[in-house]
Design brief:
alpha/beta, 457 residues, Arc Repressor Mutant, subunit A, Aspartate Aminotransferase, domain 1
């Protein structure tokens, strides 16, 4: 066997043993060297490459230490790691490139419309905090900066009718971080009921705390109380802004029914109010927590409301959880950036967030209209499901299509779809980040690719 893939360039700056180590490791990870394959002996490789045995020995020793190869006495060195079922390095690099590359028609939902955010004002607020050295040279408040919690109290009351005191607000770096905190306060091994495929990232958190995740039934108005009776959960996770068969606001009658059931059965409600303030076709209605402050945990986020890169979420804890939090917070650390927290507090207090929300509602209203019209024009036969507050539309063709081929085809045309947890036959298009003038052409390319890759029976 030829070992030309093993590089040993004496003119290279990288140490010789390191070159050999990396060459063999790359060949194993790429699957070119299979498990059980024999490597050349130290003496043979040393002679073939014109290098010292010590150099080869050092490379082999490192590979053995990391488990890539094994030394069998009297037999030689053999590949010990199997990478056949792992994507090759080139595939992994391609996947990473796809994740970070620019797409002309980006329906992925990984960004928001640049025309909405006053980036100059946000940068100004960040710069102002950075210039205050005394703020940067100290740890932040484990519960969240007091200035931000005071600002959030006013903001949440004004936009979502949240009943809260600043002392009941806890800040964290994203909704998942908040859910980890909540699970630690609620305890391990609970049963939680949620809408199926509504928030798959939350399921990972719940299962990490050994929760029994069950799914309640929905009608046109959201979670049914009858299904809650059958499931008997300890905790209920709801997003009242998009729920049920119509994907509409949960009406107040159903909210009150769920609150009554939870109170009577000693179940806790977690209200994930994701983008609740972004409803634009109708006025946002008060949150569930507004009707039940004793048994509802409110969770809000700024990922899509402000900037995806600003990973700040917050929760409003009822008193019974607040007592547990206060007894345990000395053991916790804050996960959200102190600088961004203080900048956000200033952004809210200055009134910029209000102007931001007004503009966002206007822009997203128009973009959602264009997206729905374009899908109806190019694919009227498809089943459509519109999610207003999550800023996306799903379409399901009346036929089977080759999903993998469609995504490859769209990538070549610089089109990216939103990752979907609803199955390979459902295509999700977010309008949060794509430019308004690109929506129609982007939808045309998506629908064209779906038709072209229709499976024949």
């Amino acid at each position: 066997m030829l070992y030309d893939f093993i590089i040993a360039d004496k003119n290279a700056k990288k140490p010789m043993y390191r070159q050999i180590y990396l060459s063999v490791r790359k060949a194993i990870e790429n699957g070119n060297l299979k498990k059980g394959s024999k490597l050349p002996s130290i003496r043979k490789l040393s002679a073939d490459k014109g290098i010292s045995k010590t150099t080869v020995q050092s490379a082999y020793d490192q590979l053995c230490a990391e488990g890539y190869i094994v030394n069998k006495p009297q037999s030689g060195y053999f590949v010990a790691a199997a990478f056949e079922n792992i994507p090759k390095t080139a595939d992994r690099i391609y996947a990473q490139t796809q994740e970070s590359r620019y797409f002309s028609y980006d329906f992925s939902g990984k960004s928001i419309d640049e025309n909405i955010v006053d980036l100059a004002e946000w940068k100004k607020n960040i710069k102002d905090i950075i210039n205050r050295n005394y703020l940067l040279t100290s740890y932040g408040d484990v519960q969240g900066e007091e200035a931000l919690r005071i600002a959030l109290q006013k903001y949440a009351l004004g936009t979502r009718s949240v009943n809260a005191q600043a002392d009941n607000i806890v800040v964290g770096a994203g909704t998942q971080a908040i859910l980890v905190l909540l699970c630690s306060l609620i305890g391990f091994g609970k049963r939680i009921a949620m809408e199926k495929l509504s928030f798959v990232q939350s399921e990972w958190v719940f299962k990490s705390f050994d929760y029994d995740v069950v799914y309640f039934d929905c009608d046109d108005y959201g979670a049914t109380v009858d299904s809650l009776k059958e499931l008997s959960p300890d905790v209920i996770l709801i997003n009242p802004n998009f729920t049920g068969g119509r994907g509409d606001n949960m009406p107040v009658t159903r909210r009150l029914e769920i609150i009554d059931w939870a109170r009577e059965n000693n179940a806790l409600i977690i209200e994930d109010d994701y983008n609740g303030e972004l409803r634009y076709s109708t006025l946002p209605m008060p949150c569930v927590q507004n009707y039940d402050t004793e048994n509802t945990v409110y969770v809000g986020s700024f990922s899509k409301v402000l900037l995806p890169s600003v990973r700040i979420s917050y929760t409003v804890l009822p008193q019974k959880l607040m007592a547990r939090y206060n007894s345990a917070k000395r053991l916790m650390n804050q996960t959200a950036s102190k600088t961004e927290q203080l900048a956000l507090a200033k952004y809210i207090e200055s009134g910029k967030i209000e102007a931001h929300l007004r503009k966002a509602r206007r822009v997203y209203l128009e973009k959602s209209r264009l997206l729905q019209e374009s899908v109806k024009k190019y694919f009227p036969e498809a089943d459509r499901d519109f999610n207003e507050t999550s800023l996306y539309l799903t379409l399901k063709p009346p036929f089977e299509a080759d999903r993998e081929q469609i995504e490859q085809d769209l990538a070549q045309k610089s089109v990216r779809l939103m990752a979907s947890n609803k199955g390979n036959d459902v295509f999700t298009l977010s309008f949060s980040g794509i430019a308004q003038e690109k929506i129609d052409e982007g939808v045309r390319l998506v629908c064209e690719s779906i038709f072209q890759n229709k499976k024949t029976i």
